[in-house]
Fold Ornithine aminotransferase.
Amino acid sequence: MRHGSNSADTPGVCLGVRGRGLLNAVIINERPGKPDAWDLCLTLRDKGLLAKPTHGNIIRLAPPLCITKEQMDDCVSILKDGLKAIE
């Protein structure tokens, strides 16, 4: 997930992705008057991916251990689309 998400073409929105194993955090750039981490979580929810905002500008992603590669690829695709939507 970190590799796929870090290659997202949204440098002004996503400051980076960090984590270990399947537990990941997406760091969102805090931009006054622009969509924030909560707005991204709502966008992701509408696209079928559940994520939780933590510490204001960080989104936590914790997929189940039984996730398949195809499902993980779908998650990365949805995350990229969500980041572009709030750009």
